[in-house]
Amino acid sequence: MPKKKRTVEEQTIDPAAQEMLIRAEELGLSTAFSRADDLSPCNIGSTGMCCKLCGMGPCRLTKDGQTGICGATIDTIQARNLIRAIAAGGAAHSDHGRDMAFTLKAVANGEAEGYSIKDVAKLRTVAARYDIPIEGRAPEEIANDLADLYISQFGQQKGEIAPIIRAPKKRQELWKEQGVVPRGIDREVVEALHRTHIGDDQDPEHILNHAIRTSLADGWGGSMIATDAADILFGTPAPLLGQANLGVLKDDMVNVVVHGHEPTLSEMIVAASQDPEIIEYAKAAGAQGISLSGICCTANEILMRQGIPAAGNFLHQELAILTGAVEAMVVDVQCIMQALVDLASNFHTKIITTSPKVKIKGSTHIEFNEHQALTIAKEILREAIDNYQNRGTTHIPQIKEDLIPGFSHEYINYMLGGSYRASFRPLNDAIMSGRIRGVAAVVGCNNPRSSQDYLHTKVTKELLQQDVLVVETGCGAIASAKLGLLLGKAGLEQVGPGLREVCEAIGIPPVLHMGSCVDNTRILTVLTQMVEEGGLGDDIDQIPAVGLAPEWMSEKALAIGTYCVASGAYVIFGGSSPVSGMPDRVADSDIISHYISEGWEKIYGGKLEFIADPDEMIAKTLEHIDKKRAALGLPVYDPDRFGESGDTRMLEIEQMPFEERVSAIYGVAAD
Fold it and tell me: Which of these, 185, 130, 128, 133, lies nearest to 163 by C-alpha position?
C-alpha cells in the first residue's frame, strides 16, 4: 500500500515554505519534504536494534532473547549506537571550536587577514578565569596565551579540560566522583569509538558512562571554546533588530545565502560585501547591490552580531534555491544537504563549498582559510555577482518577520541590573516569587518527518502562556522568529500574566534568542550564574528548568542533550527515539531508555526522554518545573497573583480622572 502523501499544510506551518513547496510540485522537483514522504524509515535501525559495527553483520535483533553473531545483546547494541552518535555530534561541534581557537591564534599573531579582536573586555574576563595574566598586557598577547590554552584542550591526554571550572562547584565534585571529567576533547571521542569496536566494551551502563564523559568534552569543552572565541573575535551579541524568512531575498540585488555553522567565513563575507569596490562591481553587473542572508546556524551567527537577515532554518535551504533569486549559496560545514547541487542545476544558483572538510560533487569549491580571509571572501562574492546575469524568473514569497536576536548571557546579566548592578538576582527573584514559573530552553533542528516548525512553536506558545520564560538557539529560534515570537510587544500578547509583568518591566521579549546550536553553552552559563546568585539551590539540577529539542534530527542534538543531562537538566526530545526498541516484541528493548531516564537521574539529577506527543512534552515540562519549585519550598504557581507590570498600571492610572488617580496611587480619597 503506497504511503500517504502529506499536504503542504501538513509538511510545514510556515506560509513561505508552503508557497515554495507548491512551486516545487509544479516544477516536478523533489525536496526533503517530499523525500520524507517517499522514504519510510527502517523500524529496526531507527529504534537502535541493528548492529553493523563489523563484517559479520548487520545483525538485526527483532525477537525476544536474540543476540548478534558475537553474542551482543540488544541493550549493548543500543548503547553502542547511542555513544557513537554522541561521539560524532560532539566531534562536529568541538572541531568547530578547534577551528575558532586556531583563528584566534592567527589573529593574535597578525596572520589573519581582515580579522581583529572585537571584544577585548570578554577576552580579559575569560583569560582571567583561566589564570592567564592580563594586567599591563596587549590584547594580542593575552589572546595568544588563551588560544594556546584552547588548542591544548583538544590533544590533552591527562588531567582535566580547563573549562570544567566554570560549572557549579557541586557539579564539578559530582563529575569527579563519577569519573567522567573529560581528560582531553579528542581523547574522549577516540575512546568512545575504541570502546564500541567489535569485541570491546560490552556493559551498557559502562558504555553510557563514557557517553557522559564524551558529551561533557563537547559542552564544557569544545562548544564552550567555540562560543567564547567567536565572541572575542566578532563581538559578544547584544539585542538588535533583524528579519527572518524567505521574504528577505531581494529581486533587484545579488542574493548570496551563507549556510552552515562556522562564523569565520560568514563574518568575512559580511565584511567583504560592504567593500565599496565589491558594491560597485555588483552595480556594474546590473544589480542594486548585494543582499546577504543566512540559513541554519550561520544565519544565527551573523543575525545576532550583524543584524544580517535569516532566510530560514534547516529545511529552508532547498526552498531558497526554488525562488530562482539566489546567485550563490555559500556553505561550510554541517547540515548541508547533498541534494542542493542537483536542485540548483534547475536554476542558475551556484553551490560554493569552502571548507577543506566538505566537498559536494558538482559544486564549485573555493577553499577558505583565515590567513587570506578577506581576499577569498571577495573572490566568492565576485563569483556570485558574475552569476547575476544568468538569473531567470524569480518567485520570492513576500513573507518575513521582524525579530530581536542577540541575548548572550552577558547581555542578560546586564539587562537585569544595568552597568553597575549587573546581576541575575531579578531573574532568580521572579522565579522565587512565582511571576516566572520556570525556564525552558527550546532548541534544536528541523526534521522533515514532522511538520516544520509546528512542534517548536506549539511547545513555545503553550509554555509562554504558563509563565515559563523561554530561551532558544539554532533552528528552533528561527522557527519562533518566523512566527513573530521574538519581538517584545508581539510576543507579549501570547504570554501569561506574571511573565508579562517581568518582560514589560525589563523591556525584553518573552523568548530570548541566544544564538546558534553551538551556543547552547550560553544556557549552561546562565544556569550556573543562577545557581551562584542564590535562592534556587546549589546546583543546576535544583533549578525549575527543562531543555527541549522538539524536532531533533542530528547527532549533535544527542551530544547536546547528553551534556545537559550530565549538567543536571531534564531534557525532552520530540520525534522518534534511537533507543526505543520494540517493547511489544522484545522484552529487553527498553533497558537503555530506562537507564538514560531514571538511571541517569539517580546519578546526575538530569534525565533524557523521548516523547512524541507535544501535549505530553508540555505536561511533563510543567510537572518537572512544579516539582523543582516544591523541592525548593517556593510558592505554588498561581497565575492569578500577577498580571499588571508597573509600566502597564501607570499608563492606566494616567488616563484616570484626578480623584481616581489619587485613590489608585495613595489608597485615599482626594480632598
Answer: 130
CATH number of the structural domain spanning residue 341: 3.40.50.2030
Read off the C-alpha cell for 375. 581576499
The H-or-E segment that residue 403 falls in is: strand 401-403
Indicate the pairing of strand 438-442 with strand 350-353.
Answer: unpaired
User: What is the torsional sign of CA 395, 399, 401, 402?
Assistant: positive
The CA-CA-CA angle for residues 522, 525, 528, to 5°, reads 155
Considering the domain boundaries, does residue 431 fall inside one? Answer: yes
CATH code where residue 135 lies: 1.20.1270.30
Residue labelled with grid coordinates 525579530: 403
pTM over 0.70? The answer is yes
Q: Give dist(CA 505, CA 430) in Å, integer.
A: 11
User: What is d(CA 650, CA 496) in angstroms, rounded to the nearest whole number?
Assistant: 20
Measured between alpha carbons, how far is residue 358 from residues 64, 103, 345, 364, 606 in Å? 42, 19, 19, 12, 35
Vertex 129 angle, CA 123 and 131, to 5°: 100
Residue 488: what pLDDT? 75
| Residues recorded for the chain | 671
Q: 338 and 303, same structural domain? A: yes
Query: Could you tell me if 200 and 134 lie in one domain?
Result: yes
- Burial of residue 68, with CB atoms counted within 10 A of its CB: 0-12 exposed, 13-18 middle, 19 or more buried: buried
Q: Are residues 383 and 454 in the same domain?
A: no
Name the residue with cell 546586564: 414
In this structure, what DSSP letter does residue 606 have?
A: -
Quote the DSSP letter at residue 251. Answer: T
570 and 434 fall within a common domain: yes
Q: What is the pLDDT of residues 534-553, one digit of tens each?
A: 999 999 999 999 999 999 99
pLDDT in tens, 552-591: 999 999 999 999 999 999 999 998 899 987 666 566 668 9
The structural domain count of the chain equals 4
Q: Tell me: do 229 and 260 sit in the same domain.
A: no
Q: Is 602 within a domain? A: no
Give how far Cα 542 sits from Cα of 46, 567, 606, Å: 33, 11, 10
The boundaries of the domain holding residue 186 are 74-234
- Burial code (b: 16+ CB inside 10 Å, e: under 16) for 384-395 equals bbebbeebeeee
Do 440 and 507 fall within a single domain?
A: yes
Q: Determine, yes or no, domain membership for 399.
A: no
Strand, helix or coil at 102? helix
Residue of 135, 126, 82, 88 lying closest to 104 (CA atoms): 126
Q: Are residues 221 and 353 in the same domain?
A: no
- Choose one of 182, 201, 234: the last residue of a domain: 234
Q: Report how far apart the first and last C-alpha atoms of the chain are (Å, whole number).
A: 83
Q: Domain boundary residue among 345, 365, 390?
A: 390
Cell of 154: 583538544
pLDDT range class, residue 667, cuts 50, 70, 90: very low
Instruction: Give pLDDT, residue 665.
Output: 45
Looking at the structure, tell me whether residues 259 and 304 fall in a common domain. Answer: yes
Nearest-angstrom CA–CA distance, 459 and 195: 37
Of all residues in the chain, what percent carry a pLDDT higher than 90?
Answer: 84
Q: What Cα–Cα distance (Å) separates residue 459 from each residue in 402, 449, 465? A: 21, 17, 10
* Residue 426 within a domain: yes
Strand 401-403 and strand 242-244: the pairing is antiparallel
651 pLDDT above the threshold of 60? no
C-alpha 301/C-alpha 259 separation (Å) is 10
As a whole number of angstroms, the distance between CA 379 and CA 373 comes to 10
Contact 389, 382 (CB under 8 A): no
| Alpha carbons 67 and 553: distance in angstroms, whole number | 28
Across the range 635-645, mean pLDDT stands at 82
pLDDT tens for 3-12 read: 678 999 999 9
